[in-house]
Amino acid sequence: MKRPILYVAITNHGFGHATRTASVAATIQKLYPEVLLIMVTTAPRWLLECYIEGDFIHRPRAFDLGVVQADSLNMDKNATLAKLLDIKKRQNSLIASEVNFIRQNRVQLILADIPFLAPLFAQKAGIPCWMMSNFGWDLIYRDWGGEFVAIADWISESYGECDRLFRLPFHEPMQAFPNITDVGLTGGTPRYTAEEIRAVWGITAPQDKTILLTFGGLGLQQIPYDNLRHFPDWQFIVFDQTAPYLPNLIKINDRKFRPVDFMPICGRVVSKPGYGTFSEATLFDVPLVTIPRDDFAEAAFLLEGLVNYNLHQIVTPDEFFQGDWDFLNQPLQPPKQSQPLAKDGNQAIAQAMINYFQSIKM
Questions:
Q1: First CA to last CA across the chain, in angstroms?
Q2: pLDDT digits over 95-120, tens only?
Q3: How many CB atoms within 10 Å of residue 235?
């Protein structure tokens, strides 16, 4: 019997796409141990290993770039445009090199989140490309206008060749995709009990006074940590290694631990708009505090999803960056929808892939 081989292509932008896709890949591996995962991403191997416990091949390649950013909130549009035009120029050689790799390694299926060249790899290699996301890069670039409109058209055309899209919650319409399957929330699962987390990291504050500050793999350079002095009997958890040493600030410096491992012990998660954090917090019913982002088209859909499905606070950039963080003392807003979101996204995508592999074995 041939071993099922899955090529998983991940957008080269921050850590969010890598962690949400690795969560799905880990579920596929758990349910179908014979599958060989080829993780194609420039995200570091240690990050993937935080989610995928079994073996996998790591192929560090980038076929897109998302947005060039100095940190989680500041974007460089000129540098982004230059890099996109370079990818467009090299498109044929990028496709040829990956098709060669895909054929040599007898890949049977591609799962992509959500590099726009992946459907073209699959088309040339004669295999299906399935994708997963809550937005396409064409949405982001089209919103910027000017020279980005032609780039967005090129990307939409590629997405149009995708065989099947698993559309995640908090999504835009994603009209470029011809075949859409809506799925539930995706994300990691905590690996430790609340007692273990509290003991290892010395967390003694009650849950409503334990706050996770998380701004993704790109971090946020200007978090006003000085505000933490207003909350001496609270504890704040950060993954930011540049954060100052404060008596009520716990810096997580062990890569085995992920933000999702701390969510169940927290009263609130404070984050920029990002699917991974929003999805995991909603999976575990942890309230979210966030700031709007008018310059990133995906943010409007994320905020709408947050308002509908989770206890939340939306604070202005002024309140976050210049205020004294009194919002932490304010009551949370209830979700508008009474019907919760489905929480089976990992399983639904994994099962569809397993069914496909089993159908081609027969």
A1: 10
A2: 999 999 999 999 999 999 999 999 99
A3: 22
